[in-house]
Amino acid sequence: MTRALFVVLFLLPAAALAEITRIEITSETPFAGGKSFGAVGPYVKVTGRFHGDLDPSYPGNKGIVDLRAAPRNAQGRVGYSADFEVLRPADPAKGNGTLFYDVNNRGNKRLIHLLNDVPASNALDTPETAGDGFLMRHGFSIAWSGWIPGGRSFPAAPGILRLEVPEAAGIEQPVWDEFLFNDSRQREGKLSFTPVNLDKTKAVLTVRDRNDDSPSTIQRTAWEFVGDDAIRLLPAGTPFRPGALYQFSYRAKNPPVSGIGYAATRDWIGFLRYQQKDKAGTPNPLAPNGFHKISVALAHGTSQSGRFLRDMVYNGFNETEDLRTVFDGINPHIASARLYLNYRFAQPNRAYSMGYGFLGYPDAAFPFAYEKLRDPLSRREDGLLERCRARANCPKIVHTVTSTEYWQGGHSLNTTDPKGETDLVLPDNVRIYHFAGTEHVITATMPKGVCVAPANTVIDPRPALRALILALDRWVKGGAPPPDSVYPKLADGTLVPASAQKWPAIPNFAPPRTPNPMAQFDYGNKILDRIIDTVPPVPKDFRYPVLVPQVDADGNELAGLRLPEQAVPAYTTTGWSLRSAEGGGAGELCYLDGMALPFAKTAAERDKDPRPSLTERYQDKNAFISKVRAAAQDLARRGYYLEEDVEKTVERASRAW
After folding, report:
1. What does 305-349 look like in DSSP terms, one character per residue?
2. How confident is the model over 207-255, as pLDDT tens digits?
3. Which ranges constitute the DSSP H helices of 547-620?
4. Does 136 reside within a domain?
């Protein structure tokens, strides 16, 4: 886009654009205590709330479930509001021209934690919360906003971003909640929705010990409602059993119109990109003087929010109401399925295989892949990019995953046909990078003792993510494409059934029986309208094949982007762990944690361990460090790493000796 055309578009009147009707700016303060970031200088943090409304008759909104049943304002539109936060250069002209939207994860900011090498925080106030300033040094303008409907299942909390949407009053329907607790202190299970009444004869509580067990019904005399927002076991004070899978079915009323989350994000980014001010004259937070430098928009989403991005594109929300692109590029990170958001009685904070149960949420359904394929179950053809292709507004995609997504989320279905028989050719606008031997996030997610071993925190994929984000930014601005995709494949034997993996006989070690299967469920006759009327869903006699990365003689994954800590290993690292007897459900996959099993230091110490010791491999620490440095430099030469991260990686890896 030429500068002249960009200025014309930016100055179009607000009424012609997406309907963000009002901006409330509650604070505008120096970011990180006024710290300056290289040539870009200091940043400003703007917080507030935006208000919007939606025309239910607009074609781009018609797919939002229950939007037509929501209350309307005097203009016949459906209103909503959301929290927002923006970080921008104090001098917008010094930015790099990219708006970078971080889709919050359950209300939490994740982008700065991942890219600025700093512990996760929602505060973003002290200089320390800026980390090494990576995003700021490169001139990105960063935005967040609420997209998860607030309410009983997502209550307000300090620093948490929320979306307020209307309820579809008067609608009643069967729903279900699921509970999996990891200790014996849990006495209540919180309900996601308001029950129609507290008649226990209209509700059912079941429990099972493992995924494939048949559920047992708990007698109604053994549980009760606690008000209208929870249940508990009887007698009062009885704990839920750790590791057991509880499922509670009941009748609920007044569902929030949750699919507004996609439209609110669409319209907020459209406002930030293309509008000068709101209808009341409040300036765009990125354009305090009526002009900004933004020319492209990227989006990052971690886990839940990565699934949000995949589903947002799939559902056709990458286009504003005046037919302009929302995101030019997206980075779904550690996300393999889609999202349970645009449904009646949606539960977006749930996830397929949350804990270890695969309990019937419809986010794990065809299509999985970006390319158009035929579903062997329904026989229909579809792909995640079909709607944006028809509208010529598909983003460029850098999709990054860990080993956990293969074991817990069926990620292999993103790169194979649905029968698991053939590798796909990725679309030209898609890159997929598997960070070999890494777990879902770089910190433990489970309490101590629930998993059989400590979490895998020894491999940090964030340096590679930094390099790939800069590559995505260059790509959407017309530069060279990112480096080649790197992930396991059927053709070279690096993507296999779990039964074909060749694990070393490590003492006191047992691999999983299977990854979480991609089970399918019968949701009733209305599922095409995003309405589930078979509660709880009934399992079908059909499962998509789930494949996993093959391992080498050390138990480390053969294929993918082998980061320096795995290319020059001191551990066997996995993206999976197993639940312990103490945690309940012994032997089942342990949520999102992996394991790091260290090599012995010397041959004498390794006893019956078949994996060579550190000294047998590297002789001494200096040789080990030299090899780590060479591996990091090789990744940098190939475009998967940044030179500035080489020595930090060497320092971190050296602690393994």
Report:
1. HHHHHHHHHHTT-SB-TTS-BS-SEEEEES--S--S-SSTT--TT
2. 999 888 899 999 999 999 999 999 999 999 999 999 999 999 999 999 9
3. 564-567, 603-606, 614-618
4. no
Is residue 296 within a helix (H) or strand (E), and if so which, with residue range? strand 296-302
Q: Which domain holds residue 219?
A: 172-253
In a domain, 247, yes or no: yes
With 0-12 CB in 10 A as exposed, 13-18 as middle and 19+ as buried, what is 581? exposed
Contacts of residue 189, Cβ cutoff 8 Å, sequence gap at least 6 = 177, 179, 230, 231, 232, 240, 246, 248
Residue 415, token pair as written in the block = 């790169």
Residue 223 domain-assigned (yes or no):
yes
Domains of the chain: total:
1
CA distance 219 to 250: 15
Amino acid identity, position 585: G
DSSP secondary structure string, 382-439? Answer: E-TTHHHHHHT-PPEEEEEEEHHHHHHH-GGGGTB-TTS-SBPPPPTTEEEEEETT--
CA distance 565 to 556: 11
256-295 per-position pLDDT tens digit? 999 999 999 999 999 999 999 999 999 999 999 888 899 9
Residue 219 included in any domain: yes
566: Cβ–Cβ under 8 A, 6 or more apart, which residues?
Answer: 436, 437, 459, 556, 557, 573
How many residues in total does the chain contain?
Answer: 657
- pLDDT at position 352, please? 72
Distance between CA atoms of residues 398 and 299, nearest Å = 10
Torsion of CA 207, 210, 211, 212, to 10 degrees: -100
**Is the whole-model pTM more than 0.90?**
yes
- b/e map of 612-622 (b: 16 or more CB within 10 Å)? ebbbebbeeee
